[in-house]
Write a structure and sequence with these properties.
The protein has 184 residues and is an alpha+beta fold. The chain has a single domain, classed as Gcn5-related N-acetyltransferase (GNAT) (Aminopeptidase, 3-Layer(aba) Sandwich), CATH 3.40.630. The protein has six helices and seven strands, in the order E-H-H-H-E-E-E-H-E-H-E-E-H. Strands 1-2-3-4-5-7-6 form a seven-stranded mixed β-sheet, with helices on both faces. The longest helix is centred in the last third of the chain and has 17 residues. It is globular and about 40 Å long. The model has no long low-confidence stretch (mean pLDDT 96). Bound molecules: coenzyme A. The site of coenzyme A (COA) has 21 residues, from helix 2, strand 4, helix 4 and helix 5.
Length: 184
């Protein structure tokens, strides 16, 4: 079963390791933090920052990935979505999709957002398929928007509205529950 839990002190080192995983890093627009002490400063600042929230994705209780919403402090009731599965053993088996359904419930039903949006590198097929499955829609396409490893890369802008998630959530949750990824 997939779950989301709040951050604890021990997650600092875990996030440092995960964010530097090549399979995670290759899909991120920014460089990873280079030193562990800079990362620790970022982690502490992030936990105190009302503008953002982060959760650890767990798989049968074991930490597997990270999910974050940023921009919560604005008056527009929207936030930017960020996520990755840090543990290689947890990728490609529906963990991301299950975490996504739980994260969208937090965003729309608990926090009361109106919109969640995301920037995804245009060739990140796994993320694009997973997000489309939850009901994210394409809102834009930014050409040569990110300089990554010496190459300019295109970015897709995705978003989902509260009413769109409400309309889709039962279907998405039923399918995840049938795969024993979340509780029905
Ligand atoms: C993007 C990411 C978070 C998605 O998480 P994931 O767990 O790997 O992805 P999914 O939940 O979609 O599962 C992947 C595949 O497993 C399949 N799957 C396997 N068992 C499944 C099950 N029981 N139920 C549903 N899907 C299942 C899915 O269909 C999917 O296949 P598809 O993409 O061919 O349709 C993850 O791949 C990741 O961390 N990638 C690197 C970092 C990254 O790209 N982050 C996002 C930046 S925008």
């Amino acid at each position: 079963m997939i779950d989301l839990r709040g951050l604890v002190d021990e997650d600092c080192g875990r996030l440092f390791r995960w964010r530097r995983e090549p399979e995670v890093d290759r899909w991120m627009s920014d460089l990873p933090v280079q030193s562990e002490s800079d990362h620790a400063r970022w982690f502490e600042g992030m936990r105190r920052d009302p503008d953002q929230r982060g959760w650890i994705i767990t798989y049968n209780g074991d930490p597997a990935g990270y999910l974050t919403l940023t921009g919560l402090g604005g008056r527009h009731r929207r936030a930017a979505w960020g996520w990755y599965i840090g543990e290689p053993w947890a990728r490609g088996r529906g963990v991301g999709r299950a975490a996504q359904a739980l994260g969208l419930d937090l965003a729309f039903l608990d926090i009361g957002l109106e919109k969640v949006w995301a920037e995804v590198l245009a060739d990140n097929d796994t993320a694009l398929r997973a997000q489309a499955a939850a009901g994210f829609r394409r809102e834009g396409y930014l050409r040569r928007h990110v300089l990554k490893d010496g190459e300019f890369r295109d970015v897709v802008l995705l978003a989902i509205l509260a009413e769109e998630w409400r309309a889709r959530r039962d279907l998405v949750r039923r399918s995840l529950a049938a795969s024993h990824l979340i509780v029905a």
